Amino acid sequence: MRAAVLRGGRMVYRDDAPDPVPGPGQVLVEVRACGICGSDLHFAAHGAEVIVLGSQLAGGAGGGTDVDLNRDVFMGHEFSAQVLEPGPDTQTQPTGSPVTSMPVLLSASGVEPIVYSNNTLGGYAERMLLSAPLLLPIPNGLDLKHAALTEPMAVGLHAVNKSNIAPGETALVLGCGPIGIAIIAALAMRGVETIVASDFSPMRRDLAATMGAHQTLDPAQGSPFDTVKAAVVFEAVGVPGIIDDVLLRARRGTRLVVSGVCMQPDTVHPFFAIAKEISVQFVLAYRPEEFADSLRALAEGDIDVTPLITGEVGLEGVGQAFDDLADPERHCKILVTP
Q: Any stretches that span the bilayer, and where are they (predicted)?
């Protein structure tokens, strides 16, 4: 079977990947589209660091990071697919049905996140296994390429839900990569009346406006906080120093929602947050109902992800696509269509 795998820090094509065989409660599906996620790019470049940090988390919170980088790593967690074959004693949608799922595979041995794995295939492959209880039918004839973006849209929706923002409050989104854009789309869907987006990239600022931002700012021209008095700030940059800068510059009582994943040690001055009673909320992923809500929003036209899709490659082109995504002026989201 054909697949793209991480090998030695690079995505490479192979035509001899193992053919997945569904067990009880599992379904064999044909991958139709899979988005390349920023977390995949980061793991390709900094996988060893991700594994070390994940192993330090208490209570199994680092699940999915028990990976041997000396072996091929399967990835791809933003996918849509069509049903091929159920496992033994498994009821599922008819063959050919379009489906998606949260990226989790259930088996007799436990729960395997479909994120980074030496054994569990992800969406950068012709076929993969999904869990029958977690399958969601793709409704309303939704384009399967658009359905593949259910997962990142759910990440944005979760961040917005965690913020408890009201329509009359002003939101400031720092960083207009795919997750910042997903946050903007969720804010617009929520009816927030003032959405301001900040990014150095002109292309990404234009995309933010297309997806619902009412105002865009270039931080090279001055701090966004000199212009905007936001009730809620969404940090979607993920580099050291951003959080502390927000704590310093934000107004009293601001709610800061951190969705950018910073892998380096960072320094903050708690005094800034204490003096202004700033609430800080870190967020990750989404709840099952948020995943379903995002799929419904796409299918009903509440969110149009067409502008986000800036490229499409086959499995042979995944390595080059990883390189191309390093330039924010060229791409937002590249889809892999096996």
A: none
Same domain, 38 and 127: yes
Q: Which two tokens stand for residue 227?
A: 């212009």
Assigned domain for 274 exists:
yes
The verdict on residue 213 lying in a domain is yes
From CA 103, how far away is CA 88, in angstroms rounded? 21
231 close to 165: Cβ distance less than 8 angstroms = yes
296: nearest Cα among 146, 81, 105, 164: 146
Cβ-based neighbour number of residue 168 at 10 Å: 10
Confidence band (pLDDT; 50, 70, 90) for 65?
low
Q: pLDDT tens-digit profile of 72-131?
A: 999 999 999 999 999 999 999 999 999 999 999 998 888 899 999 999 999 999 999 999
pLDDT > 90: percent of the chain: 88
Upper half-sphere CA count for residue 54 (Cβ side, 13 Å): 16
Q: What secondary structure does DSSP assign to 277-336, as a single string?
A: T-EEEE--S--HHHHHHHHHHHHTTSS--GGGEEEEE-GGGHHHHHHHTT-TTT-SEEEE
Query: Looking up tokens 């793709």, which residue turns up?
Result: 138
In terms of DSSP bridges, do strands 26-35 and 78-86 run parallel, antiparallel, or are they unpaired? Answer: antiparallel
Angle of CA points 69, 63, 82, to nearest 5°: 85
Nearest to 337 by CA among 149, 115, 125, 138: 125
* Beta bridge pairs of residue 78: 35
230 in a domain, yes or no? yes
CA distance 172 to 195: 6
Confidence at residue 55, expressed as pLDDT on a 0 to 100 scale = 78
**Structural domain count, the chain:** 2
